[in-house]
Design goal:
Elements (H helix, E strand, L loop, with lengths): L5 H5 L5 E3 H7 L9 H10 L3 E4 L10 E6 L2 H5 L17 H9 L33 H11 L3 E5 L5 E6 H9 L6 H4 E2 L4 E3 L4 H11 L1 E5 L5 E6 H30 L4 H7 L11 H8 L2 H7 L6 H20 L7 H17 L10
Parallel strand pairs: 7-8
Antiparallel strand pairs: 1-3, 2-3, 4-5, 5-6, 8-9
């Protein structure tokens, strides 16, 4: 993605904007291990940072762009006696272990609750004007595969919705076959910032809800079909990552002892306690790799794939990405397919 020009980045100092807007300046849609470090680096090159940290919170939370202070550059807790703090890690192994202890288990979902505006359809709308002919409305519904269409005038005022059911009702009651006769007032409208879960019963009952943006206009429509597709997009990585970790633990747990594990992390005793970064360090040693007994698998290639899976896992868990790119999903599918080959008895027992 392209970095904004120097003048644009410098001009951000002293301003506030939504995290979504900050990402958009760099051409990004989500926070991940590409977007977050790039923006942080570009801001820091001009002595800037965000308060609070834009890597956390809702995409619609606002952050201030401020100069990096001396305290922010150097940090606290230097480990001096006067500081009253515990001395920090003294070697690379302890630093790695302390960092990886902060990782969350794969089975946990991100802490930020999903909101209506996290759905792409909440920002996409096809509508019809109240003075348009009915055949045009029907044609657009057929073209896009819609079952309903909002009726909105040039000023943005909502007049109702046209649905296949309202059109059928118009004919059944013998009313004049025109758009005004087919407009229905039976709809629900929800705030774009509303939490998604409480809205689900409305969508289930009415098959759709209209979405109201912050400026009061209708910005999108969420249907039952949208939810079904979004569930697959959002939930699929969690289920796949969970299967990947379960299979890895089964495969590695058959081979590696407590002594092997403690060569990687002295505070842990079994593979079941390890994180993705520790799986990599466990396997990235020829003698330990040979114990695994996978002669047909190239170690460097496998570890490279595992490292990329770790990055995707961190994207899902730490940056609350609403969806992954197709190549990221493909990577997870290919990797779990490999593990299924080496863990053929998965599901045959009740163990994890």
């Amino acid at each position: 993605m392209a970095t904004p020009d120097d003048a644009t980045i410098k001009g951000l100092e002293g301003t506030s904007l939504a995290i979504r807007g900050l990402l958009k300046l760099w051409g990004f849609r989500i926070r991940d291990h590409a977007s977050v470090p790039q923006i942080q680096l570009d801001l820091k090159s001009f002595g800037l940072t965000t308060v609070p940290d834009f890597a956390f919170g809702s995409l619609d939370d606002e952050v201030a762009i401020v100069p990096v202070t001396v305290e922010q550059e150097t940090g606290d807790g230097t480990g001096t006696a006067d500081s009253g703090t515990e001395p920090g890690p003294t070697n690379d192994t302890e630093i790695r272990e302390d960092f990886e202890d902060l990782e969350e288990p794969v089975g946990m979902f991100p802490q930020a609750a999903m909101r209506v505006h996290d759905l792409p359809c909440a920002h996409s709308l096809t509508s019809i004007a109240p003075d348009d002919p009915l055949p045009l409305a029907m044609g657009r519904m057929v073209e896009h595969g819609y079952s309903q269409l909002p009726v909105i005038d040039a000023s943005g005022t909502l007049h109702g919705v046209v649905t296949w059911a309202s059109i059928a009702h118009m004919h059944a009651t013998g009313r004049k076959p025109c758009l005004s006769s087919a407009i229905s007032g039976e709809y629900e409208i929800v705030n774009a910032f509303a939490h998604l879960l409480p809205v689900l019963p409305l969508i289930r009952a009415h098959e759709f809800v209209l979405v109201r943006a912050a400026d009061g206009t209708v910005s999108g429509i969420v249907t039952s079909a949208d939810l079904a597709g979004e569930f697959g997009t959002v939930a699929r990585p969690f289920f796949t990552l969970g299967e990947i970790e379960r299979r890895l633990r089964r495969c590695l747990g058959r081979v590696y002892s407590e002594a092997d594990v403690q060569k990687v992390h002295k505070k842990k005793r079994s593979v079941d306690e390890m994180m993705f970064g520790e799986y990599i360090r466990l396997l990235d040693q020829e003698e330990r790799w040979n114990k695994l007994g996978w002669p047909g698998v190239d170690r460097d290639h496998f570890i490279g794939l595992l490292s990329r899976v770790k990055d995707v896992r961190n994207t899902v868990m730490h940056f609350n990405a609403p969806s992954l790119r197709s190549e990221q999903l493909d990577l997870l599918d290919r990797f779990v397919g490999m593990l299924r080959h080496y863990d053929p008895d998965y599901g045959a027992t009740t163990g994890a």
